[in-house]
Amino acid sequence: MGNVTSGPKTRVLIADDEENQRAGLAKMIESWGFAVETAADGQEAFEKLNQMPVHVLVTDLMMPRMDGFELLKRLAAQGDGPAAIVLTAFGNIETAVQTTHDLGAFWFFEKPIQPSALKVLIERAATQSRLAEETERLQRQLTYKGVLVDLVGVCAPMQQVFSLIRQVAPSKAAVFVCGESGTGKELVARAVHHLSPRRSGPFVAINCAALPETLMESELFGHERGAFTGAVERRAGCFELAQNGTLLLDELGEMPVGTQAKLLRVLEDSCVRRLGGKTELAVDVRVIASTNKVLEDALHKGELREDLYYRLNVFQIALPPLRQREGDLPLLTETLIEMLNRKHETRVVDVHRDVVDQFARYTWPGNVRELRNVLERAVILAGEGTITAHHLPRDFGAPAGARPAQHVVESDAVRLPVGTTVSEAERSLIQLTLQHTKNNKTRAAEILGISLKTLFNKLKEYGAAEAEAGSGA
Known about the structure:
The chain is α/β, with parallel strands linked by helices. The chain has helices at 19-31, 42-49, 68-78, 93-102, 115-144, 156-168, 185-194, 213-221, 238-241, 257-269, 295-300, 306-312, 329-344, 353-361, 367-382, 422-436, 441-448, 452-472, and strands at residues 11-15, 35-39, 56-60, 83-88, 107-110, 147-148, 151-152, 175-178, 203-207, 222-223, 235-236, 246-250, 271-272, 281-282, 286-291, 315-318, 347-351, 384-387.
């Protein structure tokens, strides 16, 4: 493997309190084509890391002022440190696990070092840093264009949400996502997971509102065989399934208060005990909670325990409703249509101006979820080309309960009041089918299950009736 020298030189920072060791390492690494900086301890290394771009950190563990452990802890807390290779003369398996896993080091290397192996490690670490930089750059570009992972938005409130996600994602902090139903709370949770160091781990979501109280604890904590009637085998809970990843507790306010107390214990101890189990299992899981309730109201009503709220509400992200996202509708509509075209293998390209105006006037009580549902229906009906008002639900935008007094041909259904004759119903169905096929009579006849000749005869009959009615008037 060749060393990473494309573009600006890869910069390596060596932190070691032994001057001879530091100088020897610097000379050797420079001979491999890397730019090298040195620091006599962790404090000096930390200062230099905040002053210049560094791709790889090679650090000793035992140093004065600030040791390697503290240096790595501070870099992990910042979330933007370089790939770190740890060198130590006091290596053991516990130290290796702590530095490479708990503190996020790239690799553990016991002195005396093997130059060839160190060179390979630096090259790999540099490649990882370059890829992380490129990912960060591309993500920033997408954010400026109104996209962050699966979230879309150019308005100021959504850009603020993007900023909060990017700040909290690299940390280990718990996150509380608030917002009305349909605003995209799970998408925020997935974005935090995707941009975090846990992205390679599992993302597990549990809907607390969808589970009965009798099953909630089993889903969360798991159970042993025979723990209760029907427990015929051991089952891992959500915490175990999300090990080294992220767990979303969706609609936390719907969780029974008794279960909330047990959840708090798990969060504080980082240990879980399956129902019917005798031992506790250590878990390393980042928890994100969400709710569509007003948190103050939920606390006041006793639906959410205060101690659990304060344990989870370390970092809160509030999602704005769609009616407050001025300017986002066009981008959301375009993005959703592209996604729905892939899903349904359709070829819809745009939305008629009348539909755009209707969307802008509507308040969207169901938020982005409602917009997606409306567009999915319209994409399926249109098939290709342009979505028009005919492809929207018949009562879209109308006040609740408002219904026309007579039967009207919709884009995908015919509403017929009692008293409609069979011939009138037949005519409405034919007109509906012709609208759907954009007046393709051959296709309409196939859908209706009649011959093309029969369809023409029916249309001729309707035309004659209209002409007769016109002359009679």
